Amino acid sequence: MNTAPVLKLRYMLSMVLILGFYACSHKVYQVQDSKVERIFISDSLEEREDLNQLIEPYKIQMANELDRVLTYAPVDLSYKGMNTPLGNVITDLMLEEGNKIYSQRHPNEKIDVVLMNRGGLRRSFTKGDLSVRSMYELMPFENEAVVVTMTGTKLMEMVNFLRLTPRNHPIAGISFKKESEDKEIMVGGELIDESKNYRVLTNDYLQKGGDQMTFFLDPIEVEFLQIKLRDMFIQHFEKVDTIQVNQNPRYL
């Protein structure tokens, strides 16, 4: 059988397709006409009942999720002052939940210290139920959990910063005298060793030097835990019927 005509036909069809594609891909389109209308949003605009009906089921679903109770606070949780109940609860849970994630990635290694910024916690809570909505009010930002590995010298720099600043930023895993240059700084129950490296869990805002925390810059390593802090709070409190407040002071 002579296949030459068939091959020739296939070749010609291929060339037609290639040329057609090339022509289409280089076709230039021009806008012939366009209209722009500015609509100013104000209370003078009439409500659209059809749109209200469309979004109503989603509003109800969202409200139900936000009002879902996570846990119970047996005492008032204030963020004001030094060694605050709220600050201790939040940094303690960050140390616990952060280490669960970190130890899965790095067996036999752990996070040593937690540092949050005072401005990152946006409200206090009175004794009672805490809901998903409470977590959004507490942490309205999309901050992520970040582990920063730093030298012991850098950790000392962090301590000196915390001693000088008038704001009492929440901490966990570390304790020291606030108004003193005392070298007795305890990390995980042991004296700080400036020759060692330490892992500090914080948020991505501080990790970039926010709130003048420049000691986080030029670290040994930075590792994102791929979880937002607010989600970490929610996941933790979902498993806790009643919050246990650790009153052990960090600032002595």
TrEMBL record:
GO MF annotations for this entry? Answer: hydrolase activity
Residue ranges of every copy of the 5'-Nucleotidase C-terminal domain listed in the record: 81-216
- InterPro entries referenced in this protein's UniProt entry, alphabetically: 5'-Nucleotdase_C, 5'-Nucleotdase_C_sf, 5_nucleotidase/apyrase
CC annotations in GO: outer membrane-bounded periplasmic space
Which branch of life, at top level? Answer: Bacteria
Record-level GO BP terms: nucleotide catabolic process
Q: What is this protein called?
A: 5'-nucleotidase C-terminal domain-containing protein
- Species source reads Profundicola chukchiensis
